[in-house]
Structure formats: structure tokens, C-alpha cells
User: Fold F5/8 type C domain-containing protein from Paenibacillus profundus.
Amino acid sequence: MAGNAKPRVPNLGDEAKIEITGFRGSSVNTPNNASDASVLLDGVTTKQGVYNAVAMSTHFDSYLEFSINRNSNLWAVGGSYSDSGGSAGKQLKLEMWNGQEYKDVGIYNTTATNGWYLLCPSLVAGKYKITPVANYVTFNEWYVENLVLNKSLIELSGGEYRTYKSMFNVDDKTTAIPKMTSNTTPSGRAFAKDIYTPANEEWKAFNQVDDEEGYVSKNSNAGYLGYEFDKSIPIVKYAVRSMNSSSKLSRLPKDWTFEGSNDGVIWDVLDTQKSQTWTTLRTDKEYIIKEPKPYKMYRLNWTANPSNYTTINELKLYSGTFIGAWESIPISTIDEKIFEEHGMTDLSIIPPEAWQELAQLSPTIEIVTYVPEGNKAKPFTETHMDIPLRVDMTALPFEQLIVQPSDFDLHGNLLSIAANKLPAEVSAYDGTCKFIVSFDKGATWEAFKNGKWKTVNAADMVNVREQGMSFKTLAQIKEKHLLNKGKQIRIGYYLDDSIHREEEIKLDHSQLVVKSALDDVKFEDMSFYLLNTTATIQLQLTGNKLTGELDDADKGKVQYRVLLNDKPYYPDNGEFTRLASSPLDINLYISEREILFNQENKLTVEFQDYWGQTDQWETKFIGTYSGLMFMDKTGNYYSDTFGGILKYLDFGIIIAGQTTVDQKVVVKNQLGYEITNLTLEVVKDSLPQGVTIELSRSNKPFIAQDKLLFSQIFQQDDTVEFYVRIATVIEAEPTVNGQFEIRAKADRV
Assistant:
């Protein structure tokens, strides 16, 4: 099926896969093969020509074979092709393949209208064959409805699960339709597709009198009869009553759908019946609406009866009192069986007051939906909206402001803004992280200070650093401070770590805590989806930064943990991260303090969905240092990333008044980005009196300087050589194990 052609039915299941494997049509369908019948699935319900998409005839031994992969309902649009036998729908025979031969399933009625109808309900997965019982069987379009439905439960903040049981007290005494004396009196409106004569008008089916006939249609076994109320009401039960004449019993409808509408254009199917018959006079057959909703108009839309005329004595509609209630599910673990037994397929029937009841019990309300493999997950937004950071920190140690690219819509009052910071080591330098927010799509930015919102100039980094909110300030913002701030929010993160670019600023996650919308938001706006399929991951390790995305095709919640050399790295307790909506961006620096340098390291990322289905990604790498690194001429490092001494530039014993032989030193760019204006400078403060450290670009000649500047651009892993020597005067003070320091700095390109 292509396009949006599908039946208008509440809680219509997703489309199941169907394969047409064989076809032989009538004389008007040539040539005859499976591809000719593929037009049944092209999304077009009205066909060119007079023969519809598919026409089958007994004269030509027509048949149609198909296979379905799920338990399904088969819906059809019949079309209005007319032949010598009349334009009425005909019967077909359905058979199912048992592995050796086709076996009868049953006889089904088609229609000659251009509307959707349920052709074959509750088919199990398998291979089928359709053959016509009479000429001609025609179709314009098919829709195969998957009967394996998504099921939902409500989870409260304490881990308790609930389901909603909707029930109505039915008023069995009287129909909701007043005793009609014409099509419009005393109130409402009776209507039908057509009438046989003025003596059999529509209102005769609502006059609460047992007539010999009541309402009678024209010469056709397809039509409809209905009633329009003054306002929308829920109908929970309806009845069709037989007439006061035994000769007319065969004229009662046989197959129909009971439908509701609020505009007379779009009709939702509320109930479907097949092969209904009456054998006694003045007898009501009653039918319950499983999921009633308020509609202004209701109709009985029949597609078959045993006669050319349709007669209905009385059509009764019953309203009732809603008595739905929450039911707690006593479980310790949740699985597919729990969803099958207690899950809800339609949450729109839950009234606002029921949501309000839950809001008094729990600060958060989440809708947990089990999506069977192959089904589709519907769009959703969570009550707790996780803000994916998507923060690229490669620019550090330079300060920067990272701004969310789009707004988050708020369906309810914003209660607070929460952000978590990963703890740094006790002795480590603590970088700066500040927050600013915008409630007008980024036009203006604000920070909360001293109980008031103040404007911040986002273009001025100094102003952002000084006026931005800290983690502590962010945690102090309450619901009352966020009232009247609109229904959208955007967050900016100011990050500055001027000591070590990768080590100290680690922003774990941010979260908007939003009160559940109870008045005008559909349930999709609070849902998240749990899947029984394994999530997927795309990662890469560049330098010491792990980046990528953890995703689930059905957009379920996912979590992960990182192991370095088989030991917990993130989170450091070895647990998985909290469940978060997919796709989940992963931006994680691997601390060089944990890496085995010049040895093979193994980095493992384990990930799973809500159900605990786990998979992993793994890579191996040789540990290397990052920064502007000093090396000797053989490539051995003098110091590590953290300033630790690995090797001394040793000049041995120096006699006062002498100048040493120069030694070659190599500087290598291992920052992970391009640099320029590389400056090498001697720290003079710690030098003994009478001792000078001299630098030179070359040793032949050695041109002594105390500072060198290299203005070219250095790519990652580019190197430059320079030379060092020590000069002393005769009065130099003797120093045992004297040391000196050369520092390197550069500008990022």
C-alpha cells in the first residue's frame, strides 16, 4: 500500500506485509499474473476505467493468491463495476494453504461501494487463495491491518505500573434518541443514503413503534441509516430491532460497520458485524462499543443483506455513565507477557481527571509502550525531556559557548532545569561551566540571579562567564521562577578549562523537568517507547576522544557504559548510564591518566535497551600523549601530558665559566588540531645566578636566544627541531642537581 489510503478506524493497526503470489482475472484483466494485481496495494482507492483494479469471474476460473506475515484483518475498497448480474457486491471463497493443499476458510461478502469495509477479519499468518462464488468480484484497494498491536502501561516515579480500565454504566431502559415524529422533530436529525418511498422515511426507524417495515432503502443491498445529535455524546451500545412482519425479516442488514463522525465527512468505524440474521419478530440484537468516544453523528453502514431492499424497524443508541478507574499492576519486573495481559491500545480514552489523579500521586508520569518487532513506534516527547548535548569540546582549552541548535517544546509547566556534572579528581583543577537560557528562539539570553531573570549578552564571552548560572544556581530555580516564560526553551553551555582541555569539565547530562500536561495534550506528548530489539551504535576514537551515536531504530530508550582495559571507566562504578531517549550522542574524553602509554589499550562500550538486550563495540589503540610534547632526537619523551618528568635533558657536570655542547630537542604537535605561532621560552626565575639557558634554531651556527618563535602552521604530529646549551660565568654559584624549565605555547588555527 502506498500513500495515505487506509480505513478510518480507531486504533487501526500498522500495515502488515502482504505478497501477491498468483492471479488470474476475468477477460478484462489481461495478461494475468501476480504483478497485475499489485495495483491493489498502490494507495489509490478510485480506479480508472469501468472495471476497477481487479475483476474476477467464475467464467474464467479466476483466483488470487496472497501471503501475509502477521495475524491480520483484510480491508478492501470494492468499487462500483456493474455487470449483467447487477452492481451489488458478490461473495468469494477464501481458502488457506496447509502445506499440501488449500482448505476452506469460509465465504465472505464484498461490496459495490467506493468505501472501505472489513472483508476478512482475524486471518492468521499464512498463504491464502480467493476465488469468486458469483460474477463479478471486484476490488480497487486492499489494506492489511496488523493485529499484533502496541500495548502501553503507565509508570509512576516510584517504579509502580498502572493500567486504565474504562467502563460505562449503560442506561438499558431507553435509547438516547428521542421518539421521532419526522426527520427533524422533536430534535436532532435522522438521515440515510436513500429511501424507498416517503412512507418509509428515515425517522420511521426512530419512532419507537414496531412497524411492519419501518425504514426501507432503495433497491440495493448497500446503504446507511443514522442519527445526528445536537451535541457530541458517547454511545456505548446500540441495537437493531426486527419488524412486525415475518416476511420482511430477510430484508434486515447482514454485514455492517457501526460508525461515528463529528463532521459527516470523516467516519470512524466503532464496531463491525458479519453474517447477522433474525428469525423472530420484534427482537433486539444488541452490540457493545468496546471503546466509546463522543460523536455527534452515528450511522449503521451495511454492505450486504439477503435481499435487494434493506428494512430496519428500529435502530437504538444507548449512552451511559463513564466509570473508568486506574488499576495497579503488582509486578517486580516488566516483560512482554505483562503488556499482553494489562497493556492498553488506546490512551486517548483516558479523561483529563484521570491524569490529574495520577499527578497527585507522582511527580512524573511516563507512558511505557511495548512495540513488537516489525511494528512502528509513534512520535513522542517525554515528560522528562532529556537534552542531548551534542557538545564538541575539541576547541578547549579555549573558552567557548555551545548553544542548542533548536528549541524544546514544553507541554506543561516547566518545574526545573537539572544538570549533572561529573566529579573531577580531588586534586584536579576544576574548570568553569556556566548556563544561559533563551525563551524566544535565541533572540535574547537570560540568567537567573538573586531571584530575578537578567539579560546576558551571548556574544560577549566575559559577560557570559560572569553572569551565567552555575550548577548550584541552576538547581535553585523552581517552578514559580519559570511561570510565564513561554512554551519553548533553548540552553547555552559556557565551557572553559584552561589547564587541561580534556580533563576537568565533564557535563554528564541536562534535563528539563516538566509537569505532565493534563488539559489539551494528547498522550503521545508524554510517551516513551521500549523495544524488544537490540540497539545499534556508531563510534569512533579520535586521539583520546570517543564520539558517536547510540540509536534504536524504533526510538526506544538506551543506555551504555565504557570499559578501559576491562575496568569500569564511565560511569566509574561500572553501572550503565541512566536510560535516555535515542538517538543518544556520545562525547567522552578518555583520560590520559588511565591510558597505558606505548602499550596496547582496549576500549569497550557496552550498550543495551530497556529490556536489557546487550551488545558491545570494541577497539584497540596504542596509548600516546597529547599536548606540545618535548622529545629527544631518538623520539623518547622528556615529560608526559601532566607535567610528569619521564627523562632529563642531562648536561652532566658543568664547570663555572664554561659553555656546554648543544643538544638537539624535538617539539611535536600532539594537541589534535592545527597550531601556529609556536613559542619556546626559558623560565628564568629558577635559574642559579650566573647561569644562562640559550636556545637556537640550528647548531651551525648556534645563534643564542632566550625565546624562539615558529610562525608556520603545524599539523597534527608535525615536529620542529631546536638546540639547547648552558652558558656560565666564572662567578656562577655552584648548584647540586640544578634544573631548568622550557615552556611551549601556541595559537590554535
